[in-house]
Amino acid sequence: MSTNDHIDGLLDNNQRWATETEERSPGFFSRLLKQQTPQYLWIGCADSRVPANELVGLLPGELFVHRNVANVVVHSDLNCLSVMQFAVDQLKVQHIIIVGHSNCGGVRAALQDLRVGLVDNWLRHVQDVRNHHQDWLDQLPEEQRVNALCELNVLEQARNACQTTVVQDAWSRGQSVAVHGWVYGLHNGLLKDLSVTAAGPDDVGPAYRRALEALQRRYEAAMGR
């Protein structure tokens, strides 16, 4: 099969999807053209095994999505910040959800200092998370460390999102925006809320500490401590 055959197959799939969608909901695309009013901004990993809309059962127009390697939110990433600002200021989303996933390749590379290429520089952000929690991670069995760091990374990136000027400005003007942290299990298809939700500046520190303590207790309990 040639490369063009593969590409043509994607276009055929799109034709079939568009036809079936319009048959199920006549006028769907005409309505979608007029507006998008999502309540949620999903900031997740670029991993192809984590299809945002499908995981939460939402249609096009119901979920605004930004993805990058290892679901990182940093104050120097103008791409992510621009998406956040458009979502919060223009679309008026009410929830920003940071979503990591188990067995993340980017997190594994950061944990093990694997050299991949240009992305190594991006994964420095995840290595910072690893370094901050290194003593605790070293106490875990080796096979648990990747998933533990995946969850720790979600907590840190959720806190970062809360500290952006976008979210801080929204809160200061009384806009309703809550930040959440979830992790997706590749092994079972389920999303888990890490309970790091913050809906205002006073929530950020306490929510982070509670979520971190709960995460650590859960892993330590699995070790029989």
From TrEMBL:
Which GO-annotated molecular functions does the record name?
carbonate dehydratase activity; zinc ion binding
Indicate the enzyme's highest-level EC class.
lyase
**Biological processes annotated in GO:** carbon utilization
Q: Do the record's keywords include Metal-binding?
A: yes
List positions binding Zn(2+). Answer: 45, 47, 101, 104
The reaction(s) this protein catalyses: hydrogencarbonate + H(+) = CO2 + H2O
Function statement: Reversible hydration of carbon dioxide.
What is the protein name stated in its UniProt record?
Carbonic anhydrase
Q: Which organism is it from?
A: Roseateles chitinivorans
